[in-house]
């Protein structure tokens, strides 16, 4: 059974998935529930294809002995240093979202400016990700390339 970070007041939060039983939702509220299809959010391999995490002392951080998937948090989009630089240069201490968006659309056009701002927002938010021992060590950039089937090399 996966390790539970906490359980109480009808709220359950799992940290790891050790098998199919952990994929079932528990009664009440399930925070950041594991994927119902039992696939890694990176490589999309199913539980029966995954190598389990090791014990304490495993080169990976943490003691997830026997876990197949572990919850972690990643940026919702891979950060883009060039885009961050452009947007940070446009921000004044008095500027808000609309002012920066207007500046971007004036410089790059409506469609491109809105796309840049949307990507900037996504790359500055985090969301949960359930990952196997091979994917959890990937850099953010490699993780997102893997999701788009671009990166298939060694982790």
Side by side, the strands of the main sheet go: 1-2-4
Estimate the mean pLDDT confidence.
80
Structural class: alpha+beta
- Taken together, the total number of domains comes to 2
Fraction of residues in H or I helices: 25-40%
- Uncertain residue segments: none
DSSP summary: helix tally: 4
The 3D shape can be described as elongated
Strand fraction: 15-25%
Gyration radius, in Å: 19 Å
Span from first to last CA? 27 Å
Give the total of beta strands: 6
Helix and strand sequence: EEEEEHHHEH
Can you summarize the main beta sheet? Answer: 3 strands, mixed
Summarize the structure.
The chain has helices at 81-90, 97-108, 110-122, 140-147; strands spanning 4-8, 11-14, 16-17, 29-31, 69-75, 126-131. By secondary structure, it is of the alpha+beta class.
What would your notes on this structure say?
The structure is a single chain. This protein has about 160 residues and is α+β, with helices and mostly antiparallel strands. The chain folds into 2 domains: about 5-70 and about 130-135, no CATH class; about 80-120, no CATH class. The chain has 4 helices and 6 strands. Strands 1-2-4 form a 3-stranded mixed sheet, with no helix packed on it. A 3-stranded antiparallel sheet has the order 3-5-6, with no helix packed on it. Strand 1 (about 5-10) and strand 2 form a beta hairpin. The relative contact order is 0.16.
